[in-house]
């Protein structure tokens, strides 16, 4: 195994980078859209029921059930996998963000009203900081199922890209199982790296509470 890693480290690094970027880009898009739709649902009662109904219908469906539908309609490529990851993770982030928004203590909203914050500033300084811990948990879950989506997408893809899923399938087709095992181990390695990076990032930003600091400074 060590010899294989030494011989193929460049290919493994490139494949891991490609797979990781698909997953990270899709998850970040999902995070952005999830916060947007959660904010719309929180702020506009007229569309709240529609958004929450859509999320409640599609969010509980296991990820693997979306894959055949996606393959039949769009095929699989880098863009398709990234967008599918974004779509599926959006459902998760809407749930996490909206739940956090509605659990916000009334006192924090009162402080925001005292400061006469605009809607955007209220989101940036009150709602989003309070939701960061929940979003961090949702992001790690999104990363986990995104690896499943990316792996299957790379295995089914015919555009010749070199993600770790495609590399694993190529070695299996050649009955070169030792190399396939190394690729599978590389997937686990990059998955752990992304998970730990996201955990550290959200833990760092969870300490960011600008509205509370502003109130403390006034006192």
Automatic annotation (TrEMBL):
PROSITE patterns: ABC_TM1. GO terms for biological process: transmembrane transport. It is a multi-pass membrane protein. Its main location: membrane. Residues 12-198 form the ABC transmembrane type-1 domain. The chain crosses the membrane at residues 23-42, 49-69, 81-104, 125-152, 179-205. GO terms for cellular component: plasma membrane. SUPFAM superfamilies: MetI-like. It is found in: Cell membrane. Belongs to the binding-protein-dependent transport system permease family. This is ABC transporter permease subunit. It comes from Pontixanthobacter luteolus.
């Amino acid at each position: 195994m060590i010899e294989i890693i030494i011989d193929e480290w460049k290919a493994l690094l490139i494949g891991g980078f490609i797979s990781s970027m698909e997953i990270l880009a899709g998850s970040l898009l999902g995070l952005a859209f999830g916060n947007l739709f959660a904010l719309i649902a929180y702020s506009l009662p007229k569309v709240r029921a529609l958004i929450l109904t859509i999320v409640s219908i599609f969010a509980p469906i296991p990820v693997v059930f979306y894959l055949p539908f996606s393959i039949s309609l769009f095929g699989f490529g880098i863009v398709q996998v990234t967008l599918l990851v974004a779509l599926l993770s959006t459902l998760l982030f809407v749930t996490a963000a909206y739940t956090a928004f509605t659990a916000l203590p009334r006192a924090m909203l009162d402080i925001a009203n005292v400061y006469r914050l605009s809607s955007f500033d209220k989101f940036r300084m009150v709602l989003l900081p309070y939701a960061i811990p929940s979003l961090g948990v949702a992001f790690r879950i999104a990363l986990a199922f995104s690896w499943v989506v990316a792996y299957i997408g790379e295995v089914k893809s015919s555009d010749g890209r070199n993600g770790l899923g495609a590399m694993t399938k190529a070695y299996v087709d050649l009955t070169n199982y030792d190399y396939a095992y190394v690729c599978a181990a590389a997937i686990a390695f990059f998955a752990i790296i992304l998970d730990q990076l996201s955990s550290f990032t959200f833990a760092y930003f969870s300490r960011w509470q600008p509205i509370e600091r502003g109130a403390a400074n006034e006192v």
